[in-house]
Amino acid sequence: MKERLQELQQEALSKVEEAVTLADLQEIRVAYMGKKGPITEVLRGMGKLSKEERPVIGELANKVREAIADELDQKKAKLEDAELEKKLAEETIDVTLPGRPVQVGGPHLLTSIVEEIEDLFIGMGFEIREGPEVETDYYNFEALNLPKGHPARDMQDSFYITEDLLLRTHTSPVQARTMGEYNGSQPVKMICPGKVYRRDTDDATHSHQFTQVEGLYVDKDVRMSDLKGVLNRFAKQMFGEEREIRLRPSFFPFTEPSVEMDISCKVCNGNGCSVCKGTGWIEILGGGMVHPRVLEMAGYDPKVYNGFAFGMGPERIAMLKYGVDDIRHFYTNDIRFLKQYHKA
Ligand code: PHE
């Protein structure tokens, strides 16, 4: 029996030595140490032994077991270490691999042009104001001298939300809001960029949602020549020093007198071409002297204060400046269009 146990130990230890995976070790453990293993088998035959021999063989059997278990544990630790090493080696990062290029975005053309307009007017002392896109009928129309039923409301087809709320059709309500806030207490010099909405059918030059920049200057001695001077500076800075401007009489309910401003066509230099439809001029914005009723409703005494206002569409400005031929390009976000106007 002694020999058999020693033999088993030899056998088990050499198998452990040969084992290459953790699964091999588990197999050996089950085979030798399990209840149905050969050692248990040997112990089962102990009944036949003499009293003296029994404890000796018992002790030996335990030692054999321990020896095998020790060896199994040690080998297990070794294999686990080796496995970890292998994993670490496999996962090393190759820092020499070329990187994947990162796609860098840039501001949308419309964002850039609005910022350019803002910078330009900030340079002339205007502050930036904002107002709500969901506007009351009062600020969008009434406070701008467009009472209910006024035919000029039809100039701006509107999206009404309730009888009293609508998506603003222009940025002019922000004039009325800003003046109303100051309530006649101080001069106002502001521009307001923002989105506006009209019930138009979208085509190359119309969009149901577009952008406007409003301008307003109210003080004690503001003249039409001030309006002309400011707009002339704007036109030259935006489109080039060689551009000329021209004011034509027009009509807006909130300005009197009202004007429309043209710039000389930069394609033909004012000689007439297809872009300016042979006139040599291109219309870019509307404006005028703030109507006394509008001043009055906002708390400004029209005998003391007067002012000018104007409104322009940044899409139109960008289209003219960069030769964009369809307003829908600003909203359909074709990546090729967007990339073309990214500033470096
Ligand atoms: N609000 C006018 C429009 O949308 C533009 C404008 C603004 C005209 C200010 C005069 C003064 O058509």
Automatic annotation (TrEMBL):
According to the UniProt entry, what is the EC number of this protein?
6.1.1.20
Spell out the subcellular localization from the entry: Cytoplasm
Name the source's superkingdom.
Bacteria
Names of the cofactor(s): Mg(2+)
What is catalyzed by this enzyme? Answer: tRNA(Phe) + L-phenylalanine + ATP = L-phenylalanyl-tRNA(Phe) + AMP + diphosphate + H(+)
Keyword line: Aminoacyl-tRNA synthetase, ATP-binding, Coiled coil, Cytoplasm, Ligase, Magnesium, Metal-binding, Nucleotide-binding, Protein biosynthesis
Q: Does the keyword Protein biosynthesis apply?
A: yes
For binding Mg(2+), which residues are annotated in this chain's numbering?
256
Specify the enzyme's EC class, one word: ligase
Q: Which residues form a coiled coil?
A: 65-92
**Gene3D superfamilies, from UniProt?**
Bira Bifunctional Protein, Domain 2
Name the predominant localization: cytoplasm
Q: How is the cofactor bound?
A: Binds 2 magnesium ions per tetramer.
Q: Which residues form the Aminoacyl-transfer RNA synthetases class-II family profile domain?
A: 109-320
The GO terms this record gives for MF are: phenylalanine-tRNA ligase activity
- Pfam families, per database record: Phe_tRNA-synt_N (PF02912), tRNA-synt_2d (PF01409)
Assembly and binders: Tetramer of two alpha and two beta subunits.
Recorded family membership: Belongs to the class-II aminoacyl-tRNA synthetase family. Phe-tRNA synthetase alpha subunit type 1 subfamily.
Q: Which PANTHER family match?
A: PHENYLALANINE--TRNA LIGASE, MITOCHONDRIAL, PHENYLALANYL-TRNA SYNTHETASE
Q: What is the official name of this protein in its record?
A: Phenylalanine--tRNA ligase alpha subunit
